[in-house]
Amino acid sequence: MKITKVETFVLSSQLKEVFFFSQWEYSERRICIVKITTDEGICGWGEGYGPADVIKAGITLVTPLLIGENPLENETIWYKMYRKTLDFARRGVLAASISAVDVALWDLKGKALKQPVSVLMGGQHQKRVVPYATGLYFSKSDDLTAKLVAEAKTYVEQGFKAVKMKVGLSIPEDISMVKAVRKAIGNDVKLMIDSNHAYSLREAVELSRAVEEYDIGWFEEPVSPEYYHQYKELRTKTTIPIAGGECEYLRYGFQTLLENNCVDILQIDICGAGGLSEAKRVSTLANVHGIEIIPHVWGTGIAFHAALHFIANLEPVAGRLYPPDMYIEYDRTENDIRESLTAPSIEMKNGYINIPKLPGLGVEVDEEVVRHFSSEILI
């Protein structure tokens, strides 16, 4: 079996309502996906996390390395892409391009061998995971707190056992909104906060201490990802677990994060940091350091299902007869592409999502939806 075609598509959808977080404003969802096809007519789909047009250019760069290769040798292909980009892109968007290709190859491999990706990765330690609702972004509103409270209540009504909210406007505003959301969801629902590295160390310490009483599950990206020493110091000054890693790339970046004792929870983005192949290597590093992994997930059903299979394959805590549940991020912000691109649709029952049993990633991409959201021609 040989790879005969690599097609990339930039999908875009304008939002009905603009939302923002501490760094950027979103008025559009723009996502790069890739389709890899073989001479036997089997295809796999992948997705990159980051600036879609740049990811597309990166995939174009590595495409000559893919044509004619056996897609079952996905780790060999991964290394060729890594070597091609090593001198000028050890970190960043080109790693996301490699990620998209790698995810597509795993999907293709699963379909060719008629096995779920998680089984091919070594097996399913978990048969189900707990999704947490990512939402509660900022928006222009006369009463933002009331709007966030109403949104948080809908997640509880939908059966979510955990929700994550944005912070990073200002410390007084953050404290007020966290207090209100905690009161709205009650004490039985897990609550996490994410500042998208909005704060200095001093500010992060101040906010952490002020919201500790609201039983925060973790504080995500409290400070700049450049400041490893600040992550380490913050961990000594708060009882809230510190999470981060969505801005790291490849095992080498995560090695730095782990060696500096930066986080309690590692948040690799599979579609950005090197794909499923590299994520599995990073999981071994995290295991050696005794650090929990909860992937960062943002995009379509392709990215979500890649994360599902990755989590299914993660080793549980050693020595526990009944290990704790593992979590997956489930973005609930407006995204028409995510809601229509893949089938079957994601289904949560009693606060859990089951690991797919179908071959590959366990979803099919609707190519009519690709045509609808893409300016490229799908042949």
Automatic annotation (TrEMBL):
Q: What are the UniProt keywords, alphabetically?
A: Magnesium, Metal-binding
Give the signal peptide as a residue range, or say none if absent.
Answer: none
Task: Tell me which InterPro entries the record gives.
Answer: Enolase-like_C_sf, Enolase-like_N, Enolase_C-like, Mandelate_racemase_C, Mandelate_racemase_N_dom, RHMD-like
Per the record, a Pfam family?
Answer: MR_MLE_C
Name the coenzymes or cofactors required: Mg(2+)
Mandelate racemase/muconate lactonizing enzyme C-terminal domain ranges (all copies): 145-241
Name of the protein: Mandelate racemase/muconate lactonizing enzyme family protein
